[in-house]
Specification:
There is one protein chain. The protein starts with a helix and ends in a 6-residue tail after the last helix. α17 runs parallel beside α19. The longest helix is centred in the first third of the chain and has 18 residues. It has 21 helices and no strands. It is elongated. By secondary structure, it is mainly α. The protein is 69% helix and 0% strand. Among the domains are: 86 residues, Tetratricopeptide repeat domain (Serine Threonine Protein Phosphatase 5, Tetratricopeptide repeat), CATH 1.25.40.10; 104 residues, Serine Threonine Protein Phosphatase 5, Tetratricopeptide repeat (Alpha Horseshoe).
Length: 351
Amino acid sequence: FFFGAAIIKITLFMKTLLNFLISNVYFLLTIYIFIHNNEEEKAIYYLRKSKSINSDPWLISAHIASSRLINRHSTFTKKGLILTNSKNYSNFDLSELSSSLGTIELENGSFKKSKHLIEASVLNPNDNSLAQFEWLSKKENRLIFNSSNFTEVKNSFEAFAYENFKKGEFKSSFYNCIDWFLDMPFSKRPLMFASYIATILQEYDSAILLCLVGLRNDSKEAGFINNLVYNYCLKDDLINAEKHLNKYLIKSNSDEKDELKISLQATIGLFFLRKKEIDEGKRFYKAAIENSLILKNDYYYNLAIINLTRELYLLNDDEYGLYLEKFKNIKTEDVDIKYQMEKVLEIVDIN
């Protein structure tokens, strides 16, 4: 519960220390805390001040990663390619740099160039390059990730969490998320992922606790607030749900039609349905469904249909049959969607 305050103290300490020790590689590597705090500009600033960056693959990799997060081209990309071809560094020292460069090549549509770099990144990977390889394998099916090939990699929790999840092994994925968080307590991603998995497994109290811990780090993170309200609603704890609901009601009524808005609208819809304000609840859910269709986002559409179908059945609502047909027409390869559909089928009458 004190991670948020600890990060602030660490950040202030680092900012002071980096000004004096800007040539010290150890301290420069800790700029990933800036990245996880969404302070990429500061990370780039301190990296560029380093006298070592032109010859250090770890620092170049950090600069490339920081630049990509704010949609900027790193001026050290070309230098990074030279280092990967120089044969002056170990496979381990080049792992993250090769991963960063391979990712750029893949995004630019050059699979041949990216494949060579990505394969080099996992010759002797660390946990970050391994996690990136696992993530890329989900985007490009010609890249094959097999967790059994990397059992000796230290702190490979992130990669294994995603690999377990992809296989539908949700409990194993959850435990890896917890280990990932303990390894990187300043990162929001393991908490966000773990809270979602706990929700899927209907471990609502665990999901709520994880969201509350996450909000200690970032009190404005809409993802944590959304999942927190969602889980309170499923517990029928509408008092606590409403406490957090007002924090993002305005966002849900904005003109933007993005994935976050869809999630917020659906959760608000769930709140009103559980509160027996049925017309208002259906209005928000229908808005979420409409926006998911506009964005052509099948994943969010499916989640909205699954949840609305369950709620309409529990309310014995006249529109249940209409949404049951939409539920039956869902076609997906997402293991979490399939699992949640199975859970709904345990509740509803499909005849």
